[in-house]
Amino acid sequence: MTKKNRKPKLAVWKFASCDGCQLSLLDCEDDLLAVADAVEIAYFPEATRAVMRGPYDVSLVEGSITTEHDAERIKKIRRQSKTLITIGACATAGGIQALRNYKDVNEFVSIVYASPQYISTLSTSTPISNHVSVDFELHGCPINKHQLVEVINAYLNGRKPNTPAYSVCIECKRRGTICVMVADGTPCLGPVTHAGCEALCPAYNRGCFGCFGPMETPNMQSMSKQWREMGMSDMEITRALRGFNAFAEAFRKESELHDIKNDQS
Amino acid sequence: MTSKTIKVDYLARVEGEGGLYIKIRNDKVRDVKLKIFEPPRFFEAFLRGRKFTEVPDITARICGICPIAYQMSSIHALEDACGVVVDGQLRALRRLIYCGEWIESHVLHIAMLHAPDFLGYDDAIQMAKDHPEVVQMALTLKKYGNDIVNLIGGREIHPINVRVGGFYRVPRKRELRELAEKLKWAMGAAEKLVGWASTLTFPDFEQDYEYVAMRHPDEYPYNEGRLISNRGLDIDIADYDDHFQEVHVEHSTALHSVIKERGAYFVGPLARYNLNFEQLSPRVKALARELGFEPPINNPFKSIVIRGLETLHAVEEALRIIDEYEMPDAPYVEVEPRAGTGYGCSEAPRGILYHRYTIDDEGLIQDAQIVPPTSQNQKTIENDLWHFVEKAIDLPPDKLTWHCEQAIRNYDPCISCSTHFIKLELDRE
């Protein structure tokens, strides 16, 4: 293990997640060795056995809080981290596993496991910001790796990250993609979804399904009205909003307006 | 009286959260537990009530490293339920995107997760200081694998273009042409990587395994085929539940999978290779013979070489598909839901991935079962550790611990996937 030097110390932490967002760092094939050169990778178990003690200059946190143990662990990590950045929909909104927040978790346990008594889990999956203060939230399921490098770069250089909070619609316009909702009548969450994916789905002839969560101040009511006019039922609107960002406030509240009890299962 | 505990609280260079506990009393191994404490996320539960068309987007989120595997097994199972067969160029494109995932996942594991163990580095970044060419070459090779997934899937992690019935959009012929140029370089790079991996020092450790893999009459298995083993298993995938059983053990949030009649089995590159060697390309077979890696290979530490050979095969296969590609008339075939149960199994980079869904006549999921490769390998990993530690018991504790970690990494375990799916403790008094 290298001795202490002046490079900033970067740590990568995992909670309930698919590992995809931290993998984004390893997927920066062209930039990986340069990033590794600019920082001291102090804790990143997916990539290295080496472990350096805190405190850490920048902590990247992936995953949501679903156990008592993890709720305590994130507090310890916060105490050791100068800057704490959440990466991805799990850490930022609770992830797809937050669908349990709308159901009885004990029923979920018994569907999956033969011996429910071995399983210890909280009844909810919650974002990191529900437990500790967070310095920056990077959206996406998964995050955009170029945005990740931008955010790391910004914090290492003491500036604000350039990650626009407007909607996917703006990205579609910039990309020159014809609107799938207007032209094809395809239901699309683009108007209320946070930019960052570069408007991928409409470019592949499908509607946005909300991987990056709600944009800043989304007009949810107007979106639901549009979806309804296209013949979508309350159940379909509820399902669309209850994806990877199901517990993000704007999506949660709007989905509750359309949720008809016991309609989903 | 020599008693000790090998304990690794948090395994590194694996995907997900696991650890290891090994108890040794009087130089005898008394207990081995591959602990999986990755918190459960309950996919099979919240899939209930979702529309069948949403499934590939949801199951992709089980694993950031092999989302294509989850998408493929799920769409095959759902098409089976709806009585639809997808063929021709759409089938070829599915195979192509899967080749991309095999390349990126295998090369990630070979160079960044496993090779550092053989050479005594904590990670690939340290290894890169002494072996810059091989790490740089591997990163480029991995990137080209990701480029395939990117082009067809839209992005490398959680691709958005795979749907029940086919794709949302299919590429034009000329879009694939640029890939072909990269893949021609990748062929040479994969050969060099295999050659390099074959010169590593492998611990002397051979075991008698039951290998389980898919088998297809005409091709090295990816998406389709029967399930076979070297001990007489030869079944249709719809009969999976008759032969395999998931067992819930206290030290793991991943269910252990066993063959009902015989117990532990082995899935992944080594199983595929030993059972399907003749289906590999002539170039791969020739290279394997030249390097002295003809099957059967029964040393799991040699999996690193087999992953390399499979990478080469995937590159060649991708090139063949691109070469023969003609843009299909429609990007997908219409799939109308009907009430019933469907079965899907595909070869994820880590081994067979089984899905079963029951849907109603509106296409809503009534029941889902997903058996990831790593839960199928858990029991075999524990057996390996048991035998490996007995042979290596005189090693100093830190060295023994590292070797145990390496033995686990032979399987490229993906713990995020298998939780419903690890922690290393070595207890020696």
Task: Characterise this structure.
The complex is a heterodimer of chains A (265) and B (429). Chain A has 265 residues and is α/β, with parallel strands linked by helices. Chain A folds into two domains: 9-156, 3-Layer(aba) Sandwich (Rossmann fold), CATH 3.40.50.700; 168-258, no CATH class. Chain A is built from twelve helices and five strands. Chain A has a five-stranded parallel sheet. In chain A, strand 3, helix 3 (68-80) and strand 4 (81-87) form a beta-alpha-beta unit. The model of chain A has no long low-confidence stretch (mean pLDDT 92). With 429 residues, chain B is α+β, with helices and mostly antiparallel strands. Helices cover 45% and strands 17% of the residues of chain B. In chain B, strands 1, 2, 3 and 14 form a four-stranded mixed sheet that branches. In chain B, helix 4 (88-119) packs antiparallel against helix 6 (132-153) and helix 4 (88-119) packs antiparallel against helix 13 (397-409). Chain B is globular and about 70 Å long. Mean pLDDT of chain B is 92; it is low at 419-426. Classes of the chains: A alpha/beta (265), B alpha+beta (429). Chains A and B meet through helix 1, helix 2, helix 5 and helix 9 of A and helix 1, helix 4, helix 5 and helix 6 of B.
Residue-averaged pLDDT of chain B, rounded? 92
CATH superfamily of chain B: Cytochrome-c3 Hydrogenase, chain B
Principal-axes shape call of chain A? globular
Largest sheet of chain B: 4 strands, mixed
Uncertain segments of chain B: 419-426
Query: What is the overall number of helices of chain B?
Result: 14
Task: Please report the distance between the alpha carbons of the first and last residues of chain A.
Answer: 53 Å
Q: What is the name of the CATH superfamily of the largest domain in chain A?
A: NADH:ubiquinone oxidoreductase-like, 20kDa subunit
Here the CATH topology of chain B equals Cytochrome-c3 Hydrogenase, chain B
Into which percent range does the helicity of residues of chain A fall?
25-40%
Per the CATH scheme, the topology name of the largest domain in chain A is Rossmann fold
The overall average pLDDT of chain A, rounded, is: 92
As a whole number of angstroms, the C-alpha radius of gyration of chain A is 20 Å
Name of the CATH architecture of chain B: Orthogonal Bundle
* Structural class computed from helices and strand pairing of chain A: alpha/beta
- The proportion of residues in beta strands of chain A is 5-15%
Number of domains of chain B: 1
Strand content of chain B: 15-25%
